[in-house]
Amino acid sequence: MKLISAICASALALAGAGTANATTYTPSGTYVLQGSGVTVKKGLTLTCTLKITAVIPNASGDVHGAVNHGHTATATPLLSGGLCGTVTFNSTPYPVTYVGTTLSLTGVSVNTITSGGCSGTIGGTWNDTAKTLTIDAVLPATTAGTGDCTVKGVLTLVGGVGSITNP
User: Fold this and answer.
1) What is the pLDDT of residue 18?
2) Before 77, cis peptide (omega within 30)?
3) How far apart are CA 141 and CA 136, in angstroms?
4) Distance from the CA of 108 to the CA of which of 3, 79, 82, 123 falls in 20 to 30 A?
5) Which of 102, 92, 88, 85 is nearest to 4 (CA)?
6) How confident is the model at residue 13 (pLDDT cuts 50, 70, 90)?
């Protein structure tokens, strides 16, 4: 649950939009989303555990009042299990956006087992009731001809409680 809330920061908030029009995460803090059975592929297909830790700074005292909440988020993904630990993420944490029901980590850069890496956005559909993020992402190859990366699976909020609201 924590991870999903952290991942849900709005693109508007990250772009510096006024807090009256920004996505609101309640409460602020650290959230953890995690899923096992996540499929990661670039040449080789791996089944991994994906853990995303998101941080939402407190913005209480703005136009939304004194309630503990935030409007921006950053997140750090981590893969584990078997060879999955050899797939690493560069320059973390990544900005999080939340538009409609799509929660995304932007500017992701990945080192892969096979030649070439990938970069782009890891995103999926956030279900605020179930506190799940269903990911079906394609990250373009950073080296031409080496193939794109795909990430597919379902993560569940396992740390933290909260909700996300759009402006």
Assistant:
1) 35
2) no
3) 16
4) 82
5) 102
6) very low
